[in-house]
Write a structure and sequence with these properties.
InterPro entries: HTH_LacI (IPR000843), LacI/GalR-like_sensor (IPR046335), Lambda_DNA-bd_dom_sf (IPR010982), Peripla_BP_I (IPR028082). Helices cover about 45% and strands about 15% of the residues. By secondary structure, it is α/β, with parallel strands linked by helices. It has 3 domains: about 5-55, lambda repressor-like DNA-binding domains (434 Repressor (Amino-terminal Domain)), CATH 1.10.260.40; about 70-170 and about 305-325, Response regulator (Rossmann fold, 3-Layer(aba) Sandwich); about 175-300, Response regulator (Rossmann fold), CATH 3.40.50. A 6-stranded parallel β-sheet has the order 2-1-3-4-5-11, sandwiched between helices. A 4-stranded parallel β-sheet has the order 7-6-8-9, sandwiched between helices. Strands 10-12 form a two-stranded antiparallel sheet. Helix 9 crosses helix 10 (about 200-215) and helix 11 crosses helix 12 (about 255-270). It starts with 11 loop residues before the first helix and ends in a 5-residue tail after the last strand. The relative contact order is 0.11.
Length: about 325
Protein backbone atom coordinates (compact mmCIF):
# COMPACT_ATOMS: atom_id res chain seq x y z
CA UNK A 1 0.00 0.00 0.00
CA UNK A 2 1.38 3.44 -0.94
CA UNK A 3 2.03 5.52 2.17
CA UNK A 4 0.15 8.48 0.68
CA UNK A 5 -3.04 6.41 0.73
CA UNK A 6 -2.79 5.91 4.51
CA UNK A 7 -4.69 8.60 6.36
CA UNK A 8 -2.48 10.18 9.02
CA UNK A 9 -4.01 10.35 12.51
CA UNK A 10 -4.85 13.97 13.42
CA UNK A 11 -2.66 15.55 16.12
CA UNK A 12 -3.03 18.43 18.56
CA UNK A 13 -1.05 20.52 16.07
CA UNK A 14 -3.77 19.85 13.44
CA UNK A 15 -6.53 20.80 15.85
CA UNK A 16 -4.71 24.00 16.84
CA UNK A 17 -4.28 24.99 13.20
CA UNK A 18 -7.94 24.29 12.41
CA UNK A 19 -9.13 26.24 15.45
CA UNK A 20 -6.70 29.12 15.03
CA UNK A 21 -5.37 28.79 18.58
CA UNK A 22 -2.17 27.60 20.25
CA UNK A 23 -1.43 23.97 21.03
CA UNK A 24 -1.46 24.91 24.71
CA UNK A 25 -5.05 26.09 24.42
CA UNK A 26 -6.04 22.83 22.74
CA UNK A 27 -4.30 20.89 25.51
CA UNK A 28 -6.14 22.82 28.22
CA UNK A 29 -9.52 22.14 26.59
CA UNK A 30 -8.75 18.42 26.26
CA UNK A 31 -7.63 18.23 29.89
CA UNK A 32 -10.64 19.89 31.44
CA UNK A 33 -11.10 23.30 29.88
CA UNK A 34 -9.61 25.45 32.69
CA UNK A 35 -8.49 29.01 31.88
CA UNK A 36 -9.98 28.87 28.37
CA UNK A 37 -12.43 31.45 27.05
CA UNK A 38 -15.83 30.21 25.84
CA UNK A 39 -15.02 31.28 22.26
CA UNK A 40 -11.68 29.44 22.26
CA UNK A 41 -13.27 26.34 23.80
CA UNK A 42 -16.00 26.35 21.14
CA UNK A 43 -13.44 26.74 18.36
CA UNK A 44 -11.33 23.87 19.69
CA UNK A 45 -14.32 21.56 20.14
CA UNK A 46 -15.46 22.33 16.59
CA UNK A 47 -11.94 21.66 15.27
CA UNK A 48 -11.80 18.34 17.10
CA UNK A 49 -15.02 17.26 15.40
CA UNK A 50 -13.86 18.44 11.97
CA UNK A 51 -10.41 16.87 12.15
CA UNK A 52 -11.56 13.65 13.81
CA UNK A 53 -8.92 14.04 16.53
CA UNK A 54 -8.95 11.55 19.41
CA UNK A 55 -6.74 11.85 22.48
CA UNK A 56 -3.97 9.34 23.09
CA UNK A 57 -4.99 8.51 26.65
CA UNK A 58 -2.07 6.15 27.29
CA UNK A 59 0.48 8.77 26.34
CA UNK A 60 -1.36 11.46 28.26
CA UNK A 61 -1.50 9.28 31.35
CA UNK A 62 2.26 8.65 31.22
CA UNK A 63 2.98 12.33 30.70
CA UNK A 64 0.63 13.73 33.35
CA UNK A 65 0.41 10.92 35.89
CA UNK A 66 -3.36 10.99 35.47
CA UNK A 67 -5.79 8.35 34.28
CA UNK A 68 -8.18 10.63 32.42
CA UNK A 69 -11.13 9.13 34.31
CA UNK A 70 -13.33 10.01 37.26
CA UNK A 71 -15.31 7.71 39.54
CA UNK A 72 -19.06 7.99 40.03
CA UNK A 73 -19.25 6.54 43.54
CA UNK A 74 -22.62 5.49 44.95
CA UNK A 75 -22.50 4.47 48.61
CA UNK A 76 -25.86 2.71 48.57
CA UNK A 77 -27.03 -0.89 48.01
CA UNK A 78 -26.67 -1.92 44.37
CA UNK A 79 -30.40 -2.32 43.73
CA UNK A 80 -31.01 1.38 44.44
CA UNK A 81 -28.95 2.32 41.38
CA UNK A 82 -31.76 0.85 39.27
CA UNK A 83 -34.75 1.59 41.53
CA UNK A 84 -34.07 5.26 42.31
CA UNK A 85 -34.24 7.34 39.11
CA UNK A 86 -32.28 10.21 40.68
CA UNK A 87 -29.05 8.21 40.55
CA UNK A 88 -29.53 7.37 36.87
CA UNK A 89 -30.08 11.05 36.05
CA UNK A 90 -26.89 12.08 37.84
CA UNK A 91 -24.95 9.23 36.21
CA UNK A 92 -26.10 10.19 32.73
CA UNK A 93 -25.31 13.85 33.31
CA UNK A 94 -21.82 13.08 34.62
CA UNK A 95 -21.10 10.74 31.70
CA UNK A 96 -22.15 13.41 29.21
CA UNK A 97 -20.07 16.08 30.94
CA UNK A 98 -16.97 13.87 30.82
CA UNK A 99 -17.57 12.78 27.22
CA UNK A 100 -17.42 16.45 26.22
CA UNK A 101 -13.96 16.55 27.82
CA UNK A 102 -12.73 13.28 26.25
CA UNK A 103 -12.64 11.65 29.69
CA UNK A 104 -14.05 8.40 31.04
CA UNK A 105 -16.52 7.78 33.85
CA UNK A 106 -16.05 4.73 36.09
CA UNK A 107 -19.12 3.52 38.01
CA UNK A 108 -18.42 2.27 41.53
CA UNK A 109 -21.00 1.03 44.06
CA UNK A 110 -20.08 0.66 47.72
CA UNK A 111 -23.11 -0.37 49.72
CA UNK A 112 -21.49 -3.05 51.89
CA UNK A 113 -18.31 -3.12 54.01
CA UNK A 114 -16.63 -5.45 51.49
CA UNK A 115 -17.54 -3.15 48.59
CA UNK A 116 -16.29 -0.10 50.51
CA UNK A 117 -12.96 -1.78 51.19
CA UNK A 118 -12.59 -2.74 47.53
CA UNK A 119 -13.47 0.76 46.35
CA UNK A 120 -11.04 2.38 48.79
CA UNK A 121 -8.22 0.16 47.49
CA UNK A 122 -9.12 0.76 43.84
CA UNK A 123 -9.41 4.52 44.16
CA UNK A 124 -6.38 4.84 46.43
CA UNK A 125 -4.24 3.04 43.83
CA UNK A 126 -4.75 5.90 41.39
CA UNK A 127 -7.00 4.17 38.88
CA UNK A 128 -9.12 7.34 38.75
CA UNK A 129 -8.15 11.00 39.12
CA UNK A 130 -10.97 11.84 41.50
CA UNK A 131 -14.32 10.84 42.93
CA UNK A 132 -17.84 12.16 42.42
CA UNK A 133 -19.43 11.04 45.69
CA UNK A 134 -23.13 10.77 44.92
CA UNK A 135 -24.50 9.81 48.31
CA UNK A 136 -23.06 9.96 51.78
CA UNK A 137 -24.11 8.89 55.25
CA UNK A 138 -22.84 10.57 58.38
CA UNK A 139 -21.13 7.51 59.85
CA UNK A 140 -19.81 6.14 56.55
CA UNK A 141 -16.02 5.61 56.93
CA UNK A 142 -15.45 5.89 53.18
CA UNK A 143 -15.40 9.69 53.18
CA UNK A 144 -12.64 9.66 55.80
CA UNK A 145 -10.72 7.04 53.82
CA UNK A 146 -10.87 9.13 50.65
CA UNK A 147 -9.62 12.18 52.54
CA UNK A 148 -6.80 10.29 54.24
CA UNK A 149 -5.70 8.86 50.88
CA UNK A 150 -5.61 12.35 49.37
CA UNK A 151 -8.13 11.45 46.66
CA UNK A 152 -9.73 14.57 45.12
CA UNK A 153 -13.41 14.29 45.99
CA UNK A 154 -16.55 16.32 45.38
CA UNK A 155 -19.82 15.42 47.09
CA UNK A 156 -23.38 15.73 45.84
CA UNK A 157 -25.07 17.15 48.92
CA UNK A 158 -23.39 18.23 52.14
CA UNK A 159 -21.37 15.34 53.64
CA UNK A 160 -22.46 15.37 57.28
CA UNK A 161 -19.45 15.51 59.58
CA UNK A 162 -17.14 16.66 56.77
CA UNK A 163 -18.79 19.90 55.74
CA UNK A 164 -15.53 21.89 55.82
CA UNK A 165 -13.34 19.22 54.22
CA UNK A 166 -15.07 18.24 50.98
CA UNK A 167 -16.20 20.58 48.16
CA UNK A 168 -19.91 20.18 47.52
CA UNK A 169 -22.60 20.77 44.94
CA UNK A 170 -26.07 20.69 46.45
CA UNK A 171 -29.53 22.16 46.23
CA UNK A 172 -30.95 24.49 48.85
CA UNK A 173 -32.46 21.70 50.94
CA UNK A 174 -33.82 23.88 53.74
CA UNK A 175 -35.14 26.62 51.48
CA UNK A 176 -36.73 24.09 49.12
CA UNK A 177 -38.55 22.32 51.95
CA UNK A 178 -39.75 25.65 53.29
CA UNK A 179 -41.11 26.61 49.88
CA UNK A 180 -43.08 23.38 49.52
CA UNK A 181 -44.43 23.65 53.07
CA UNK A 182 -45.37 27.27 52.47
CA UNK A 183 -47.22 26.25 49.31
CA UNK A 184 -49.20 23.54 51.12
CA UNK A 185 -50.15 25.96 53.89
CA UNK A 186 -51.24 28.53 51.30
CA UNK A 187 -53.66 25.91 49.93
CA UNK A 188 -55.35 25.88 53.35
CA UNK A 189 -53.70 22.76 54.81
CA UNK A 190 -52.87 22.89 58.51
CA UNK A 191 -52.31 19.31 59.70
CA UNK A 192 -49.35 18.59 57.44
CA UNK A 193 -47.31 15.43 57.97
CA UNK A 194 -43.83 14.79 56.69
CA UNK A 195 -42.14 11.61 55.50
CA UNK A 196 -38.48 12.50 55.94
CA UNK A 197 -35.45 10.75 54.51
CA UNK A 198 -32.77 9.07 56.67
CA UNK A 199 -31.51 11.52 59.30
CA UNK A 200 -27.88 10.62 58.53
CA UNK A 201 -28.19 11.97 54.98
CA UNK A 202 -28.21 15.67 54.04
CA UNK A 203 -31.57 15.44 52.25
CA UNK A 204 -33.14 13.62 55.16
CA UNK A 205 -31.87 16.05 57.77
CA UNK A 206 -32.14 19.44 56.09
CA UNK A 207 -35.49 18.95 54.36
CA UNK A 208 -36.95 18.13 57.76
CA UNK A 209 -35.32 21.27 59.19
CA UNK A 210 -36.96 23.38 56.49
CA UNK A 211 -40.34 21.76 57.08
CA UNK A 212 -40.13 22.34 60.84
CA UNK A 213 -39.01 25.95 60.43
CA UNK A 214 -41.85 26.78 58.05
CA UNK A 215 -44.49 25.03 60.17
CA UNK A 216 -43.40 27.04 63.19
CA UNK A 217 -45.81 26.69 66.11
CA UNK A 218 -47.94 24.24 64.08
CA UNK A 219 -45.11 21.70 63.84
CA UNK A 220 -46.09 18.39 65.44
CA UNK A 221 -43.34 15.80 65.94
CA UNK A 222 -46.01 13.08 65.96
CA UNK A 223 -46.70 13.87 62.31
CA UNK A 224 -43.15 13.01 61.19
CA UNK A 225 -42.05 9.57 59.99
CA UNK A 226 -38.75 8.53 58.46
CA UNK A 227 -38.25 6.47 55.31
CA UNK A 228 -35.22 5.48 53.23
CA UNK A 229 -36.31 7.28 50.01
CA UNK A 230 -37.84 4.07 48.60
CA UNK A 231 -41.47 3.64 47.59
CA UNK A 232 -41.94 0.83 50.10
CA UNK A 233 -40.73 2.97 52.98
CA UNK A 234 -43.13 5.73 51.96
CA UNK A 235 -46.06 3.32 52.18
CA UNK A 236 -44.96 2.05 55.59
CA UNK A 237 -44.45 5.59 56.91
CA UNK A 238 -47.87 6.71 55.66
CA UNK A 239 -49.56 3.73 57.30
CA UNK A 240 -47.92 4.59 60.63
CA UNK A 241 -48.99 8.22 60.34
CA UNK A 242 -52.61 7.21 59.71
CA UNK A 243 -52.51 4.98 62.78
CA UNK A 244 -51.50 7.97 64.92
CA UNK A 245 -53.60 10.76 63.42
CA UNK A 246 -56.94 10.88 61.62
CA UNK A 247 -56.94 14.60 60.84
CA UNK A 248 -53.96 14.81 58.45
CA UNK A 249 -54.87 16.93 55.42
CA UNK A 250 -51.52 16.98 53.58
CA UNK A 251 -48.26 15.03 53.39
CA UNK A 252 -44.85 16.24 52.25
CA UNK A 253 -42.52 13.37 51.33
CA UNK A 254 -38.77 13.97 50.97
CA UNK A 255 -38.66 12.02 47.69
CA UNK A 256 -41.06 11.31 44.85
CA UNK A 257 -40.69 7.57 45.42
CA UNK A 258 -41.82 7.95 49.03
CA UNK A 259 -44.68 10.18 47.90
CA UNK A 260 -45.80 7.43 45.48
CA UNK A 261 -45.65 4.93 48.33
CA UNK A 262 -47.70 7.25 50.54
CA UNK A 263 -50.39 7.53 47.86
CA UNK A 264 -50.57 3.74 47.57
CA UNK A 265 -51.07 3.48 51.34
CA UNK A 266 -53.74 6.19 51.31
CA UNK A 267 -55.65 4.41 48.57
CA UNK A 268 -55.45 1.18 50.50
CA UNK A 269 -56.97 3.02 53.46
CA UNK A 270 -59.83 4.25 51.27
CA UNK A 271 -58.62 7.86 51.07
CA UNK A 272 -58.48 9.99 47.91
CA UNK A 273 -55.59 12.15 46.69
CA UNK A 274 -55.89 15.12 46.67
CA UNK A 275 -59.56 15.32 47.73
CA UNK A 276 -59.00 13.84 51.21
CA UNK A 277 -55.25 14.30 51.63
CA UNK A 278 -52.86 16.25 49.39
CA UNK A 279 -49.43 14.70 48.73
CA UNK A 280 -46.24 16.42 47.61
CA UNK A 281 -42.80 15.02 46.82
CA UNK A 282 -39.25 16.09 46.08
CA UNK A 283 -36.96 15.48 43.03
CA UNK A 284 -39.06 15.54 39.81
CA UNK A 285 -36.90 12.76 38.43
CA UNK A 286 -39.43 11.47 35.88
CA UNK A 287 -41.76 9.47 38.13
CA UNK A 288 -43.62 12.59 39.28
CA UNK A 289 -44.92 13.54 35.85
CA UNK A 290 -46.10 10.02 34.94
CA UNK A 291 -47.60 9.04 38.30
CA UNK A 292 -51.37 8.95 38.74
CA UNK A 293 -52.16 11.49 39.95
CA UNK A 294 -49.13 13.49 38.74
CA UNK A 295 -47.07 14.65 41.71
CA UNK A 296 -46.58 18.18 42.94
CA UNK A 297 -42.87 18.26 43.74
CA UNK A 298 -39.64 20.25 44.05
CA UNK A 299 -37.61 19.88 40.85
CA UNK A 300 -33.87 19.45 41.22
CA UNK A 301 -31.68 20.75 38.33
CA UNK A 302 -30.23 17.34 37.47
CA UNK A 303 -28.10 18.23 34.45
CA UNK A 304 -26.60 21.24 36.16
CA UNK A 305 -25.86 19.26 39.32
CA UNK A 306 -23.81 16.76 37.31
CA UNK A 307 -22.05 19.42 35.24
CA UNK A 308 -21.13 21.50 38.28
CA UNK A 309 -19.80 18.44 40.11
CA UNK A 310 -17.55 17.48 37.21
CA UNK A 311 -16.27 21.05 36.80
CA UNK A 312 -15.66 21.41 40.53
CA UNK A 313 -13.79 18.10 40.73
CA UNK A 314 -11.56 18.98 37.77
CA UNK A 315 -10.79 22.26 39.53
CA UNK A 316 -9.78 20.35 42.68
CA UNK A 317 -7.61 17.96 40.65
CA UNK A 318 -5.89 20.97 39.06
CA UNK A 319 -5.00 22.25 42.53
CA UNK A 320 -7.85 24.67 43.07
CA UNK A 321 -9.81 25.26 46.27
CA UNK A 322 -13.34 25.88 45.00
CA UNK A 323 -16.19 27.19 47.10
CA UNK A 324 -19.29 25.03 47.65
CA UNK A 325 -22.07 25.50 45.10
CA UNK A 326 -25.74 25.67 46.10
CA UNK A 327 -28.34 25.45 43.34
CA UNK A 328 -32.02 26.45 43.46
CA UNK A 329 -34.95 24.10 42.98
CA UNK A 330 -38.29 24.80 41.31
CA UNK A 331 -41.77 24.19 42.69
CA UNK A 332 -43.77 22.16 40.16
CA UNK A 333 -47.52 22.07 40.86
CA UNK A 334 -49.48 19.06 39.61
CA UNK A 335 -52.67 17.22 40.56
CA UNK A 336 -51.57 15.51 43.78
CA UNK A 337 -51.53 18.80 45.69
Amino acid sequence: MDETTVRRKPTIRDVAAAAGVSRGTVSRVINGGHWVSPDARSAVEDAIRRTGYTANHAARSLATGRSGSLAFLLTEPQHLLFQDPTFALLLRGAAEALAQRSMTLVLLVAGTPAERAGVATFVGAGHVDGVLLISSHEADPLVEQLLEAGVPTVCCGIPLGHEANVPTVSVDEIGSAREMTRYLRAQGHRRIAMIAGPHDTPGGRFRLVGFEEEMGADFDRALVEEGDYSQESGAVAMTRLLERATDIDAVFAASDLMAAGAIAALRKAGLRVPEDIAVAGFDDSGLAATHEPPLTTMRQPWERLSEEMVSLLLDVIAGGHPQPITLPTTLVVRDSA
